[in-house]
Design goal:
By secondary structure, the protein is an alpha/beta fold. It has 2 domains: 175 residues, Alpha-Beta Complex (Quinone Oxidoreductase, Chain A, domain 1); 139 residues, Rossmann fold (3-Layer(aba) Sandwich), CATH 3.40.50.720. It contains 12 helices and 15 strands. The strands form 3 sheets. Strands 3, 4, 5, 6, 7, 14 and 15 form a 7-stranded mixed beta sheet that branches. A 6-stranded parallel beta sheet has the order 10-9-8-11-12-13, with helices on both faces. Helix 3 crosses helix 4, helix 3 packs across helix 11 and helix 10 crosses helix 11. The longest helix is centred in the middle third of the chain and has 21 residues. The structure holds NADP nicotinamide-adenine-dinucleotide phosphate. NADP nicotinamide-adenine-dinucleotide phosphate binds next to helix 2, helix 3, helix 4 and strand 9.
């Protein structure tokens, strides 16, 4: 089979090579999928830049989500059949013609779902579901701030918060994205390049604080988030995309310091908190939570309540262009790569 290998950290032009690879064989509790398309996630960009610790060593096959047909199943797998079209989560290995997934994270999908919609549901929508429904337990009238609100996870969080009838603030970095956020129903879109988001939220909210803030940016953004919380509010820190701006160890330490330093007694006396979420950890220790999130996002999409936006579709030969687009901060919604 062919696979798009990450062979060199750094620039998109020299990072990937499509090479022959050994077709994997599923173990008893696994499924082999003939991949129709795979999705890109921001963590893939971090891995390409050599900034993602959990990524396999070079040469590596990256990727967390695939859509395709079941080619082979292990003898402990009973919920899917050969030939069935599924979306699945992979722990790397998705940028290939065939990919292996654990049985718990393989889900049949209707033919009406495009490849882009199917892969958006896997990593980005399941992450957003776990954040907003399981962790934040959003309620009607909650005041919510979503960072990178035009991105893959951000688009999903906006749809989920609106479905829960929350008041939604969303940040992004361009006027095109402001239009996208308005079209998606965000009540207060903020371009952080032209307006400080903390000042903007404060002007609108006065002394009232926010109930939930979803932050994949990290660094000094978290400090501002914390100040914007009301009593009972929480910041959900689920990424450090601001780290991709810095290469040196000192620079990285600087970003980590910018998060701020907190003592639990502060959380207790102010009734506020900061919670970290890493879906790889959840998948390791509580795969049933991922399965539940996936089943729910598939159901909500079938019912028309959720509607993933596909912001770019590329043939595999253009994987460098697809990666560059996601890194450029211009993409909106999900980027999908097709075989
Ligand atoms: N913890 C987990 O388990 C988990 C799971 C999935 C995703 N994530 C994280 O969620 C985030 C979103 O992932 P995604 O795949 O949906 O990507 P995405 O949001 O579609 O793309 C990344 C977006 O982040 C913003 N961004 C990029 N670099 C930035 C920087 N240096 N400073 C500030 N903003 C920056 C840009 O939008 P704007 O400039 O317009 O804001 C960019 O378009 C990533 O940080 C990812 O690592 C975490």
């Amino acid at each position: 089979m062919k696979a798009a290998y990450l062979i060199k950290y750094g620039n998109t032009e020299t990072a990937f090579k499509i090479r022959e690879a050994q077709k994997p064989r599923p173990k008893a509790n696994q499924v082999l999928i003939k991949v129709e398309a795979f999705g890109l996630n921001f963590a893939d960009v971090m891995a390409r830049l050599g900034l993602y610790k959990a990524a396999p060593p070079l040469p590596a096959i990256l990727g967390y989500d695939v859509v395709g047909k079941i080619e082979a199943i292990g003898n402990e797998v009973t919920h899917v059949q050969l030939g069935q079209r599924v979306t699945a989560l992979t722990r790397f290995g998705a940028y290939a013609e065939y990919a292996i997934a654990e049985k718990e994270v393989v889900f049949p999908i209707p033919d009406s779902f495009s490849a882009g919609v199917a892969v958006a549901l896997a990593t980005q929508y399941s992450t957003a579901y776990f954040l907003s429904y399981n962790m934040a337990n959003l309620q009607e009238n909650d005041k919510v701030l979503i960072h990178a609100a035009a991105g893959g996870v951000g688009t999903a969080l906006v749809q989920m918060a609106l479905h829960k009838k929350c008041l939604v603030f969303g940040t992004c970095g361009s006027s095109e994205k402001i239009d996208y956020l308005k079209n998606n129903g965000v009540h207060h879109p903020v371009n952080y390049r032209t307006n400080d988001f903390e000042d903007t939220v404060r002007k609108i909210m006065g002394i009232k604080g926010l109930d939930a803030i979803f932050d994949p940016v990290g660094g000094k953004s978290i400090k501002k988030d914390y100040r914007l919380l009301g009593a009972g509010g929480r910041v959900f820190s689920f990424g450090v995309s601001s780290m991709n701006q810095t290469k040196s160890i000192l620079g990285k330490l600087g970003v980590l310091a910018q998060f701020g330093f907190y003592h639990p007694v502060q959380f207790l006396s102010n009734s506020k908190g900061i919670i970290g979420v890493n879906m790889l950890k959840i998948a390791e220790e509580n795969p049933n939570k991922i399965a539940n999130a996936m089943q729910e996002v598939i159901r909500l999409t079938e019912e028309g309540i959720l509607s993933p936006h596909v912001g770019g579709e590329y043939p595999v030969d253009d994987i460098a262009i697809a990666h560059g687009f996601l890194e450029s901060r211009k993409s909106m919604g999900k980027i999908v790569v097709k075989w």
